[in-house]
Amino acid sequence: MDLGLVRGTELEVLRFAPLGDPIEISCKGLLLTMRLNEAEGITVNKLEAAEGRQASWAGLLRGHRFGKSA
Amino acid sequence: MSTQKSITVALAGNPNAGKSSLFNALTGAHQRVGNFPGVTIEKHEGYLDYKNYRITVVDLPGTYSLTPYSPEEIVTRRFIIDEKPDVVVNVVEGTNLERNLMLTVQLMEMEVDLLVALNMMDEVEQKGISIDLDQLEQLFGSHIVPISARNRKGLDELLDHVISVSEGRITIRKNKITFSAEVEKAIDKIAALLARERELDGANHRWMAIKLLENDREIYTQTQKYPVWVKVELALQEAIAECGRLHSTDPEALITEDRHAFVRGAMQECVRQPKVARASASDYIDAVVLNRVLGLPVFFLVVWAIFQLTFTLGKPLMLALEYAFGLLSSAVAPLLPEGIVRSIFVDGVISGVGSVVVFLPNIVLLFMGLSFLEASGYMARAAFVIDKVMHRFGLHGKSFIPMITGFGCSIPAIMATRTLKSRSDRLATIMTIPFMSCGAKLPVYVLLAGAFFPPATAANVMFGIYLLGIVIGLWTAWLLKSTVLKSDSEPFVMELPPYRWPTFTSVIFQARMKAVMYLKKAGTLILGAVILIWAASNFPHSKALDAELATEKAKIEALAVAPEMKAEQLRTLETRIEASQLEYSLAGRSGKLLEPLIRPLGFDWRIGISLVTGLAAKEVVVSTLGTIFSIGHTAGETSLSQILRSDPAFSRATALSLMVFVLLYIPCVAAVGVMKKEVGAWKPVLLYSAYVMTVAWVASFITYRLALMWM
């Protein structure tokens, strides 16, 4: 949450790490990483169709218990 | 001058906001590194003289927020509340305003004398971002000074502002941000309750109320001891119920959202960002470096390069230092009377200092490499790439580089764990490192594997030993993280900072800092231990053996044989006496004392002695074996490996068992010293040593027994 992931923030998943676990997301021009189990705490709504890549999707954030506060 | 006035300034800001650059630009060489009380977070403090003021600058750790979830945040808060710096300068990254201002808002809530240093203005201009500073000042109620710490621009203006604020010539308006109605109501109520408590006079009640609503552990325990707590708790519960009913969320989340809303509003009013395609150079680099196929190869290439830099480049320097200390010894020796004094100075002090200093090239080179990686932005990405593997053993992606460095030398490796933020991750990583076969263990393996196995098998044996170390190391990490260090695993939520080209001075600066720290803190401890081991191997000294040496020497001198023969016999004699002296010394006696304990591993007392002296440095095991096993052999004629092979005490099984033991038992005193320094207390280090000894004993026992059965 401290990094800006609050209700209603748009985010985009940019890529998965080579081994598949941590993911990289972009949110308000910031690049953030998180593990999949940490990302589970985020609820998203699909906002736009994936932009060509299979790994990228965009969404609205609803559940916001997240990261450090969990 | 005595007329000088003093001002204390604290620098607060997000990680990567350029706090350290500003700190270095301001204070230059006038700085020292300490620790904040109770935690192993470095405290950088420095000063500068400016216009008749002595300005002390404290660089607080980088934080995104002022919650009490990480030690950095707690340290920052406590420093601002308890030490009451005259001015708090919030360093804000101009290119990343929105997130940076989140911290500014929280500093505002603390109602301190706040100045905002808007850093990286050069990049802001480059990117065509325009910021309405006047409007921003209006909203935040603090003066904002645009600077560029890297180009040393705007620093004088910043200092002028600092002076004006501390003199009261600028009043900080201390704007308050208004939260949602329910939250405000609760804040007022709780603040009013807190104001009734006389012991909390002078405290910032509003801030405490906000923190209580945010579920702040620290403020909770602080407030709980006062009688007013009963009412406060009631008000809190009421607020939680109210927020749940109206917003289906809790006050904590509501407060954070309100802060975000405030910052977003400020951004919209004051900042114009050109709408360009966001694909910057950083994105292109990431497309390669974090690529699913190329990511791992790039990562291993970088790690390999760092390793090569540290050890391949460091080796000649290390040898040169060793050579220099050898020269020093031989230069000093004739100046002192033969006997005990000379021995103390030459073999004890000079070689002791030498054994501390030889690690310097490795440390300096490694930290130049690491600070380059850190400052360029690759470090976070390296952790991203390898995290999955490390996480499986309960470690963090950032644990990998220190671990790999452990194959060269544990000392810089243990120091490198400072990149890890969570204490439990750091401890687990530190305790994994000694199991990585360091460079000093290699000579032992080479000797033993070479002596008892044919060349092709010897390589496999050595590979097996390295592998065993890795397996036991990771197992240890897993064990620690699933038992004693279970509590707090650092979440892997972190920022990938944009790539930046590190400045040469900052890289050199970091390396110099580490070198000084090593010499000052660990060096003294190591020196003491090395001298202690030297004393143990030299005292008590047998007079009878000295006398025997003299008489035998005289006998040989008197023989009517060729000079080469004489020299040969003298050498044999000297080795024999030297070995007997070692046997007579404290180290020798402890070796004998240890014999019943190490007999089951296939070791006799002579191996015991070399294990004791090996505490000084693992390669000493080889030289001690050389001294003590050469008794009864003609020196120079046979190599040590031949001697060992022909000795009845040694077999393949013994050799294997000894290699395993040397791999696993307590690392050298230097590593233990650095470990103590980094862990911060003796108890965990001693417990760890006991653990390591147990593991070493059990593993060697199993190896020995299996080897006896199969070979």
Strand and helix map with partners:
The complex is a heterodimer of chains A (70) and B (711).
Chain A: E1 10-16, E2 23-27, E3 30-34, H1 36-39, E4 44-46, E5 58-61
Antiparallel strand pairs in A: 1-2, 1-5, 2-3, 4-5
Chain B: E1 5-13, H1 19-27, E2 31-35, E3 42-50, E4 53-59, H2 71-83, E5 87-93, H3 97-109, E6 114-119, H4 121-126, E7 130-131, H5 133-140, E8 143-146, H6 155-167, H7 181-196, H8 205-213, H9 217-224, H10 229-247, H11 251-270, E9 271-272, H12 281-289, H13 295-312, H14 314-332, H15 340-357, H16 360-376, H17 378-392, H18 400-405, H19 410-416, H20 423-432, H21 442-452, H22 455-482, E10 494-495, H23 504-538, H24 543-558, H25 563-584, H26 586-598, H27 605-613, H28 620-629, H29 640-646, H30 652-664, H31 669-679, H32 682-710
Parallel strand pairs in B: 1-4, 1-5, 5-6, 6-8
Antiparallel strand pairs in B: 2-3, 3-4, 7-9
Helix pairs in contact in B: 3-11, 7-8, 7-10, 13-16, 14-15, 14-16, 15-23, 16-23, 19-31, 20-22, 21-22, 21-29, 21-30, 22-30, 23-31, 24-25, 25-26, 26-27, 27-28, 30-32
Give the number of DSSP strands of chain A.
5
Give the number of helices of chain A.
1
The CATH architecture designation of chain A is Roll
Extended strand count of chain B: 10
Radius of gyration of chain B, whole Å: 32 Å
Q: Which structural class best describes the helix and strand composition of chain A? A: mainly beta
> Cα distance, first to last residue of chain B?
80 Å
What is the radius of gyration of chain A computed over CA atoms, rounded to a whole number of angstroms? 11 Å
Order of helices and strands of chain A: EEEHEE
Strand order, main sheet of chain A: write it out: 3-2-1-5-4
Helix content of chain A: under 10%
The second-level CATH architecture of the domain at 5-167 in chain B is 3-Layer(aba) Sandwich
* Protein chains sharing the most extensive interface: A-B, 30 and 40 residues
Mean pLDDT over the residues of chain A: 60
Considering DSSP H and I runs of 4 or more, what fraction of the residues of chain B is helical? 55-70%
User: Sheet bearing the most strands of chain B, described?
Assistant: 7 strands, mixed
Strand order of the largest sheet of chain B: 2-3-4-1-5-6-8
- CATH class (first level) name of chain A: Mainly Beta
> How does the helix and strand content of chain B classify structurally?
alpha/beta
